[in-house]
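Inverse folding, one chain.
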C-alpha cells in the first residue's frame, strides 16, 4: 500500500487504473471503517482510503484536540483490508493559504446535528467535495451511523452533479449493541456499560413498530425512557424521513429514529431504520 500526501500524488497513483473506490475517514479505525475498506476492495479495482482529521467540522476545540490519531496503526489495518493507497494529506495540503470556499447544504444540514453543531456540515460538505474532486472516485463508501452526514453528502453530490455514487454500509456494532465509534475509547467502564442503552432504546422502538405502534411521539418516548433508566439525557431523539430529515408524526413508510446523547463527557450518536 502506497501512502500519498497531496493531490498530484493521488491523481498519479490512480491514473488509468480502472474503477476507483474511495473510503473517507478521519482515522482511529474500528470494524466500521474496516467494513467500508473491505466493501471497496470487493467492488473496485483501486481502493483509496482518505485519512484526514478535518479541523473545520469540529465545533468543539477539545473534541478536535482529543480526537484519537494513530496513522501507523491505521495504515497497517488499511493495508490488511486490501487498500491500495492511503491518502493522508496535511492540513496545509487541504486548506492552503488563501483557501476561501465553503460548501453549505440547506435544509437537511440545518436540523439535529446541524443545529447543535454549528458549521459541522459545512466542514463535512466542503472536505467531501474536495476529496471527491481530488480523487475522482466512481464510488465512495460511507457508514450508516452518520445518517445525517450521508443525507447531506447525497444532497450535495446530486446538487453539484458530482459523478460519484454514494454507497452506504450498515452500522457495525459491538456484541452488546453499542455502535462502533472512534469516540467509544473515551468511555470509562461505567459509561461504556450505560451506553448500551442507546441501542436498547432504538431496538425497543423498532419492536414497538413491529407490534403495530405508529405514533412517532410514543416511539421517541420509549427511547428516552430507556436512556433515562441508564442515567443518560438525550440531546435529541428524532423520528424522521431518512432523506429529508423532516419530522415524521405517523410511521407510514421507511423512517429513521436517530438520537444523540452525552454519556459522561462523550457525545454519541446512533440510529435505526423502522418500517410499518
Ligand atoms: O465520517 C467521517 O469520518 C468524516 O466526517 C468524513 C466523511 C471523513 C469527512 O471528514
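Residues assigned per position:
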Amino acid at each position: 500500500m502506497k501512502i500519498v500526501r497531496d493531490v498530484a500524488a493521488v491523481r498519479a497513483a490512480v491514473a488509468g487504473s480502472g474503477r476507483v473506490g474511495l473510503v473517507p475517514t478521519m482515522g482511529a479505525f474500528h470494524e466500521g471503517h474496516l467494513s467500508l475498506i473491505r466493501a471497496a476492495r470487493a467492488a473496485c479495482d483501486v481502493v483509496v482510503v482518505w485519512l484526514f482529521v478535518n479541523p473545520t467540522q469540529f465545533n468543539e476545540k477539545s473534541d478536535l484536540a482529543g480526537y484519537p490519531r494513530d496513522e501507523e496503526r491505521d495504515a497497517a489495518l488499511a493495508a490488511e483490508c486490501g487498500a491500495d493507497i492511503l491518502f493522508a494529506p496535511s492540513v496545509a495540503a487541504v486548506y492552503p493559504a488563501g483557501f476561501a470556499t465553503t460548501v453549505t447544504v440547506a435544509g437537511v444540514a440545518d436540523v439535529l446535528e446541524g443545529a447543535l453543531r454549528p458549521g459541522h456540515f459545512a466542514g463535512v460538505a466542503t472536505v467531501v467535495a474536495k476529496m471527491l474532486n481530488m480523487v475522482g472516485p466512481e464510488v465512495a463508501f460511507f457508514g450508516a451511523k452518520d445518517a445525517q452526514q450521508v443525507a447531506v453528502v447525497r444532497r450535495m453530490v446530486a446538487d453539484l452533479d458530482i459523478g460519484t455514487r454514494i454507497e452506504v454500509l450498515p452500522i457495525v456494532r459491538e456484541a452488546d449493541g453499542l455502535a462502533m465509534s472512534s469516540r467509544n475509547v473515551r468511555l470509562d467502564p461505567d459509561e461504556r456499560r450505560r451506553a448500551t442503552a442507546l441501542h436498547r432504546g432504538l431496538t425497543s422502538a423498532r419492536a414497538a413498530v413491529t407490534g403495530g405502534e405508529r405514533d412517532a411521539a410514543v416511539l421517541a418516548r420509549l427511547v428516552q425512557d430507556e436512556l433515562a433508566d441508564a442515567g443518560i439525557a438525550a440531546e435529541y431523539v428524532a423520528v424522521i424521513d431518512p432523506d429529508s430529515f423532516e419530522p415524521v408524526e405517523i410511521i407510514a413508510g421507511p423512517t429513521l429514529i436517530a438520537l444523540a446523547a452525552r454519556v459522561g463527557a462523550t457525545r454519541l450518536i446512533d440510529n435505526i431504520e423502522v418500517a410499518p
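The longest helix spans residues 120-135. The chain has two domains: 2-169, 182-274.
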